[in-house]
Design goal:
By secondary structure, this protein is of the alpha+beta class. Among the domains are: 111 residues, no CATH class; 38 residues; 150 residues, no CATH class; 67 residues, no CATH class. It contains 31 helices and 22 strands. The strands form 7 sheets. Strands 11, 12, 13, 15, 16, 19 and 20 form a 7-stranded antiparallel beta sheet that branches. It has a 5-stranded mixed beta sheet with strand order 3-2-1-4-7, with helices on both faces. Strands 5-6 form a two-stranded antiparallel sheet. The chain is extended, with a radius of gyration of 42 Å.
């Protein structure tokens, strides 16, 4: 055997191959020889003779060596694998994409020696496996949307070697949404539908849904907070309308005059699938709003969105019809939905009639194409919690369960200040449900509070179970919701608004009605489709808003121009989270279930029968009504008639329990919304759906005319040359339109003198507002309020002897005294500036004024464009002095500012001030009130000596110690009684003798002066 390098005592590869090829032929030859020998000489020779044969002995030696080689081959390969494992273990953090490298090795059938060679190349950076999996691609998309290109670059060059940005582009859908600015445009909504619901080949190939599958959809409407900033859209050359520099100047003038204002919210309309997959909200409309318009505008907006979905080839024709419109508790949108979704009654010719004809008490009014409105479950849960935590409480069975709660106990138990916490709202309702499980043997039967809470718990249990119990089937969910509808109806009939506000009751009944009709409408599409109760409402839109905010990082709010880009990123996040839900972190405040192992309820959690064919609405309705009557009877609620008798009247049902009057359109105060951030409710008169002419509301919405107008506008826009730059002067100087908008609409900011470089160079800052100011009232104007950026005059003291007048530009306003940690504000009512009790402080920079020689006697000074600054002298290590200039910032009380100080002085004084020609004058302030207010020396009340602020406590302490030890003082001017306690320098703090202990000091009487 030849011994190769590093393999002492082993066969070479050539010998191994020779032995492996020689062994089969040799064994066959050996067998033939042995058999022939046995046949010819078996009588003459014994076994010992055969074994002693030289020929057999030689062949036997060869056979033994061959078997030895066969045993040594696996051991050599084991050594190679051992070396490979040792290398991987020592360099596991240095081999990029090791998991993909091993996947290639298994696929290609590499030997251990080749795998080791490839690993060494990968460690040296000469090889990277690029067989990316779907999980890695979508994980990189998630990184890109949340962290940007820098995060993708970092992970691409890490040991994980995730795909680069160019690799994920074919899988990442770049949605270019069109915001609606100015008038409502049908074409904008239709274009957004085609963008989001149109064909996307890379994703359609991965989708499990059949292209021909159609299902129901819901339209969600809500507002999102945005920065009140004007944006420029280069795709359409718009700023609330197309125009040049003159249009910008006109818009700025209109804003300053108060004719128009910059919106601080964006209205978003989104459509979502009522299906088990891909059910995220897709925004098809976004437009600025101020919530000041009438409810008729909301009707027209929703009518345009519905028509665009119905007409678009990528809308109803491809995916399915709109079945419902969901929203939160906004009062104006509630009126709009009531008018839009209560136009017609379900009659025998309606395809829904066979499913709902035997459901007594179900409100049969629907909108065009049987569309209905829906209330959001999470908002309803939060508003029920707000109702419980309100000071009025709720009345159940003629009892007020929380009548003796103090404000402290309400705060500790219900946390009324945090009205947005869904988990806490559900936890409170579950606690009320659990009250019925208590042992009531020791309770006083005369007290009905326990029964009232148990009855309320039964109603809450029927309301919550369909949304938090994943073990219910569709029939059980519908039965529970119908039971809750009748229980709340009975309590509302008995107690009215003392039990629940009109608005909350109407939203709950709308949710119950929509859930029942959703089953029948889905059955018309396809009886095999499932109905997911958890997808009802606008929670999918709230999730979309949350993803828009997290893509903004530390700047969650944005303008409408930035919002459209964030919505496109949110669409990609939605697609990734839909395929890999474990990657999404759900906010704890929005969790709708109290189980630790489930963060968020989604369609995949419901495993029972949810197909519409399995739900018999008539049997579910009858069982639910019977269950509600049994619950009411068990707790002694007396009803003058049964539900069937009450609902025999056509105009009486849970939606109009009093007969003919709908609580949904009540103008009363909704006390369930007290702790939620919603717009204030205006006084709205009651609306009867039979008296509304819906055709008049949408008469001005001509879809064909809007499409034709859009085509003409696009043709004219395409023929007109456009540019990102606009001419700003006669000399032909141009500037970018975004910079023009930011500069012209900076109402109170001087970007040229700002300390923020981005503010000076680009006209805006990264973090939005520079200071954390309180939002001012929208009615603030310069005539009634002193605002940031306004000029004011104040008096300044020079060297403690002379007084000067300074003109200052305000840069900061605080509500409390100077130096406090109060939040800043942007305006002060002028009537409160000089009040004695005013606690405002104003900071600013002093304008640099130069004397002006002019023929106009009223103009004495001119501003040279600079601010007063002072020099700071510092020394280098070499001893040379360096001057650094800094702007002078002063802070004064609001009582010492004004623009008409001299006029007030003329009214007080008998004669005018005599001012030199230069306009600069000095006035002595000795022995005046001004001297006392600006000097930091106050006279001691004991001896009359002027003492500085930091020395007052020490000075008064000397008087106290001398009085305690009986040391006479000749300079005492204020007589004191022996029993009068001495207070230290106007409550500056007590002086404690070091010889006393803490207990002696606490128990001792105050020292007195002798």
């Amino acid at each position: 055997m030849s011994n190769g390098p590093g393999r002492q005592g082993q066969f070479s590869y050539a010998q191994k191959n020779h032995i492996e090829s020689f062994m089969p032929a040799f064994c066959a030859q050996l067998d033939a020889g042995v058999n022939g020998l046995a046949l010819t000489k078996w009588k003459q020779e014994t076994a010992n003779d055969i074994l002693a044969s030289p020929l057999f002995a030689g062949k036997l030696d060869v056979s033994n060596n061959s078997q030895k080689a066969w045993h040594e081959i696996p051991f050599s390969r084991l050594t190679e694998w051992r070396e490979l494992f040792r290398f991987i273990g020592q360099n596991s953090y240095s081999i990029p994409a090791l998991h993909r490298l091993l996947a290639n090795a298994e696929k290609e059938g590499w030997s251990a020696e080749k795998i080791l060679e490839i690993c060494q190349l990968a460690k040296a950076g000469k090889y990277t496996a690029r067989n990316f999996t779907e999980y890695e691609i979508y994980l990189t998309i998630l990184l890109y949307e949340l962290g940007g290109g820098a995060a993708v670059h970092a992970m691409n060059h890490s040991i994980f070697a995730l795909p680069c940005r160019n690799t994920i582009q074919p899988y990442r859908q770049q949605s270019k949404l069109i915001p609606t600015v100015g008038s409502l445009r049908f074409a904008d909504v239709s274009q957004n539908i085609s963008t989001l619901f149109g064909s996307h080949p890379s994703r359609e190939a991965e989708s499990d849904d059949s292209p021909s599958t159609k299902f129901g959809h819901t339209l969600s409407m809500d507002e999102l907070a945005a920065d009140p900033r004007i944006d420029f859209m280069p795709e359409t050359d718009e700023m609330g309308g197309r125009g040049d520099l003159r249009a910008v100047e006109a818009a700025v003038a209109a804003v300053k005059a108060g004719k128009v204002h910059v919106s601080h919210e964006v209205c978003v309309g989104a459509i979502s699938h009522l299906y088990g997959t891909n059910y995220g909200a897709k925004p098809i409309y976004m437009g600025p709003t101020c919530k000041k318009g009438p409810w008729q505008d909301s009707v027209r907006l929703m009518e345009v969105i519905i028509a665009a979905w119905k007409r678009s080839p990528d809308g109803e024709a491809k995916h399915g019809p709109l079945l419902s419109i969901s929203t939160d508790g906004d009062h104006k949108r509630r009126l709009a939905l009531f008018v839009l979704c209560m136009q017609n009654e379900i009659l025998p010719k309606n395809p829904l009639y066979p499913f709902v004809r035997n459901l007594p008490g179900l409100n049969l009014r629907v909108g065009k194409d049987n569309i209905t409105h829906d209330g959001d479950p999470k908002h309803i849960f939060k508003r029920n919690r707000g109702l419980l935590s309100s000071s009025e409480g709720i009345i159940v069975k003629e009892r007020l369960p929380n009548h003796d709660w103090s404000k402290t106990s309400i705060h500790n138990l219900l946390h009324p200040s945090d009205g947005q916490h869904v988990s806490e709202a559900i936890k409170l309702m579950l606690c009320i449900i659990d009250i019925a499980k208590l042992d009531s043997e020791d309770f006083d039967p005369s007290e009905a509070e326990f029964e009232a809470l148990c009855l309320l718990g039964e109603a809450y249990n029927a309301l919550l179970q369909p949304f938090i119990n994943v073990e219910l089937s569709l029939s059980e969910q519908i039965q529970s919701l119908v039971t809750a509808s009748h229980l709340f109806c009975a309590l509302y009939v008995q107690h009215g608004t003392s039990f629940m506000s009109n608005q909350l009751y109407a939203d709950m009944q709308s949710m119950f009605k929509n859930a029942v009709l959703m089953v029948s409408k889905t059955r018309l599409i396809n009886g095999e489709l499932k109905v997911y109760i958890c997808l009802l409402g606008d929670d999918v839109l709230e999730a979309l808003f949350g993803r828009c905010r997290i893509t903004g990082g530390h700047s969650p709010n944005c303008s409408i121009g930035v919002l459209r880009d964030r919505l496109g990123s949110a669409m990609n996040l939605d697609y990734v989270y839909e395929r890999y839900p474990e990657l999404e972190r759900h906010p704890p405040r929005l969790t709708m279930i109290h189980k630790r192992h489930v963060d968020h309820l989604c369609p995949s959690h419901f495993k029972r029968e949810l197909r519409t064919n399995s739900c018999d609405l008539e049997s579910c309705w009858a069982a639910a009504v019977k269950a509600a009557e049994l619950i009411l009877a068990s707790y002694g609620v007396r009803m003058n008639m049964s539900f069937s008798q009450r609902f025999q009247n056509k105009d009486t049902d849970p939606s109009q329990p009093m007969g003919g009057k709908y609580p949904a359109i009540s103008g009363g105060i909704d006390r369930s919304m007290a702790n939620l951030k919603t717009s204030s409710s205006d006084d709205e008169e009651l609306i009867n759906p039979d008296t509304i002419n819906f055709a008049n509301l949408v008469a001005g919405v001509d879809m064909d005319a809007m499409i034709e107008s859009k085509n003409l506008s696009d043709a004219a826009f395409a023929a007109t040359p456009r540019s990102l730059f606009a001419q700003i002067d006669a000399a032909g100087k141009v500037a970018h339109k975004k910079s023009i908008l930011r500069t012209f609409f900076a109402m109170t900011q001087d970007g040229c003198t700002s300390h923020d470089r981005l503010q000076r160079v680009r006209g805006f800052t990264v973090g939005g507002k520079t200071w954390n100011r309180d939002e001012s009232d929208e009615n603030v104007c310069s005539a009634t309020h002193f605002q940031l950026g306004n000029l004011f005059t104040t008096l300044l003291c020079h060297n403690g002897t002379h007084l000067g007048l300074a003109v200052v530009k305000s840069t900061l306003i605080k509500r409390n005294a100077a130096g406090s940690k109060s939040s800043s504000i942007s305006a002060i009512p002028r009537a409160e500036l000089h009040l004695p009790s005013a606690s405002y402080s104003i900071s600013g920079q002093i304008l640099s004024l130069v004397p002006l020689v002019s023929s106009q006697p009223d103009v004495l000074f001119a501003w040279d464009g600079e601010f007063i600054s002072f020099s700071l002298k510092k020394k280098k290590s070499s001893g040379e002095e360096i001057n650094h200039k800094r702007n002078l910032q002063i802070t004064v009380s609001s009582q010492l500012i004004g623009c008409d100080i001299q006029q007030q002085a003329r009214e007080i004084s008998a004669s005018d001030f005599r001012v030199p020609d230069s306009g600069i004058y000095a006035s002595p302030i000795a022995n005046t009130v001004i001297e006392t207010s600006i000097r930091d020396r106050n006279a001691c009340r004991i001896c009359g000596k002027a003492v500085k602020g930091p020395d007052r406590q020490h000075h008064v302490g000397e008087h106290i110690l001398k009085a305690m030890r009986g040391v006479p003082e000749a300079s005492i001017k204020v007589p004191s009684r022996s029993q009068r306690p001495t207070h230290v320098a106007h409550a500056e703090g007590p002086v404690v003798s070091p010889s006393r202990t803490r207990r002696q000091t606490r128990n001792a009487r105050p020292p007195t002066l002798s």
